[in-house]
Design goal:
Blueprint: H1 3-18, H2 36-50, H3 56-60, H4 65-72
């Protein structure tokens, strides 16, 4: 799968997790529901769908949605 398609697929899945339409450029700390539950869902998404083990602290340190996508890829 091409990188751009993979990014779009991850973004779509993140939209499901955040339960709203989000953009790659969006600031994470402006999202009202960015909490520990969301972080656990992102960890699960990365592990289940992309065979990646991501630390929750790395996710919480992300500034933008694109940073989270880059962690998962």
């Amino acid at each position: 799968m091409k990188l751009e398609n993979k990014k779009k697929q991850i973004l779509k899945r993140l939209c499901n997790i955040f339960e709203k339409k989000i953009k790659e450029s969006e600031n994470v700390n402006k999202l009202e529901n960015f909490d520990s539950i969301i972080i656990l869902k992102i960890i699960s998404l990365a592990k289940t769908n992309y065979k990646k083990n991501i630390d929750g602290e790395k996710i919480s340190n992300c500034k933008k949605i694109s940073d989270i996508i880059d962690l998962i890829i």
